Amino acid sequence: MTEVDLRTIGDRQDIAILLARIAQLADAGDPEEYIQCFTTDAVWDLTDATDLPMDVQSITGREALLAGVHERRAAGIQGPGSHTRHDVSSITVEVHGDRASARSYFRYYRGTDGIPSLAAMGVYADTFVRGEAGWRLHRRTITRG
After folding, report:
1. Which residues, 6 or more positions from 3, have their beta carbon under 8 angstroms from its beta carbon?
2. How many angstroms separate the CA atoms of 56 and 101, rounded?
3. I want to staple 73 with a disulfide (CB 3.0 to 4.6 A). Which of 25, 36, 62, 79 is the partner?
4. What angle do CA 27, 57, 48 make, to 5 degrees?
5. Cα dist. 54→15, 76, 112, 114, 136 in Å?
6. DSSP readout, 117-130?
7. Whole-prediction pTM value?
8. CB neighbours (10 Å) of residue 119?
């Protein structure tokens, strides 16, 4: 393997770990840590909110993303005590220098303190940017199905 191949493998692994970290921080972590996983101008785009207690929305920038986290936590949609979990799998990552894209499946469960029920599933289509602090999520488009 070449040095470029090894770097690409490492980048893919770093991005997969970042995806897991974002899901875990959404469920039980500190909102400030969660927001640091995103670029300062990140976009979070929910295109279908069927069966979710929230509206279709597009949020831009860390400040707005942080406000969204607090709103979802206050509504009991995510966060400590909400008994919800995000599960991310089937991750594919394509790296192109300091930019990357990933596609993964998500499942959102409710009632995780007892018998969990699947409340939503769909696809995350993400783009990432590598900066001085490493990879950060730049854009997430969330579709259902």
Report:
1. none
2. 23
3. 79
4. 80
5. 27, 11, 20, 23, 25
6. EEEEEEEEEEEEEE
7. 0.94
8. 15
Is the CB of residue 48 less than 8 Å from the CB of residue 143? yes
Any idea which residue has 């499946």 for tokens?
105
| pLDDT at res. 21 | 98
Instruction: Report, in this order, helix, strand and coil percent for the chain, each rounded to 5.
Output: 30, 45, 25
Please state, in angstroms and as integers, the Cα–Cα distance from residue 129 to each residue in 9, 62, 97, following that order: 16, 15, 9
Average pLDDT value for residue range 70-86: 95
Contacts of 118 (CB under 8 A, 6+ apart): 107, 108, 109
- Give 3's pLDDT tier (boundaries 50, 70, 90): confident
Per-residue confidence (pLDDT) for residue 55, from 0 to 100 = 85
Q: How many angstroms separate the CA atoms of 92 and 104, rounded?
A: 6
CA 124 to chain centre: 7
Bridge partners (DSSP) of residue 130 are 135
Strands 134-144 and 38-46 come out as parallel
